[in-house]
């Protein structure tokens, strides 16, 4: 049995709590929930919903890259959205990000998120980079 591997990222905001950006185990990468923080740690809660989703997916992309994998290897995504009224906008930006790849997905409407954000996204991916 192998031990879990903590994955640290560079170019992403530092964690503010007791967790790592991602953990690898058994050929899988478990990415912690990403928020729309800027790489320097600046909060972006004042940005519009679609920009927050893009920033969050950019942070997820950097975590995946640090883990040696890519968005084309994402198996499952769980997204927390403040308010169901953002569903269509989320789906549109999500589809742009993943392109032809369609991971399994769960979208959970929530009343609020930390720091006043409107989205948080976590993912599970297979190790390795998909063939182009």
Automatic annotation (TrEMBL):
Q: Which top-level group of life is the source organism from?
A: Bacteria
Name recorded for this polypeptide: RidA family protein
> Per its UniProt record, what Gene3D superfamilies does this chain match?
RutC-like
Its lineage opens with: Bacteria, Pseudomonadati, Pseudomonadota, Alphaproteobacteria, Sphingomonadales
- The signal peptide stretch is none
InterPro entries this protein is in? RutC-like_sf, YjgF/YER057c/UK114
Species this chain originates from: Sphingomonas caseinilyticus
Report TM segments.
none
């Amino acid at each position: 049995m192998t031990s879990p591997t903590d994955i640290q990222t560079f170019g992403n905001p530092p964690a503010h709590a007791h967790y790592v950006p991602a953990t690898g185990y058994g050929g899988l990468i478990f990415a912690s929930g990403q928020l729309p923080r800027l790489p320097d740690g600046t909060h972006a809660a004042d940005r519009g919903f679609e920009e927050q989703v893009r920033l969050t997916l950019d942070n997820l992309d950097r975590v995946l890259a640090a883990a040696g994998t890519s968005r084309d290897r994402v198996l499952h995504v769980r997204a927390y959205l403040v308010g169901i009224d953002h569903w269509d906008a989320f789906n549109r930006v999500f589809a742009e990000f993943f392109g032809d790849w369609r991971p399994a997905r769960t979208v959970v409407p929530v009343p609020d998120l930390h720091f006043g954000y409107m989205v948080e996204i976590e993912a599970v991916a297979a190790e390795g980079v998909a063939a182009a």
